Give the backbone structure.
Amino acid sequence: MLQTYLDDFIDVGNFGRTKLAAIKALINRPDLAGMDAMNLRRSDILDYLRRRLKEAKPQTVKNGIMWLSVAFKTVAASREWPIAAAVVSIQIVLQNRLCGYWRGGQP
């Protein structure tokens, strides 16, 4: 999904150096690359957040999830791809958990 986002929008989108680097870093994460974007569940996102928060600061994780959410919503709308309802809730997870610097426990 992320690579499709880059392929489709890099020439028409507002991709600064920081945004491009963040998206490429997400693409290169094996724990994300192995996920099936069309069947992603909220629990998959929460599991990823738990793992990622063990190795990065909350603001770094928040930034990555923000770009992940943007990519999913943009590609799903532009290509008319069905996405799981869980993906739409990425923003909710972000706001309710990461903004409060959630570090595990129950969602």
In short: The chain has a mean pLDDT of 79. The helical segments are 2-9, 17-27, 30-33, 42-53, 58-79, 85-88, 90-98. The radius of gyration is 13 Å.
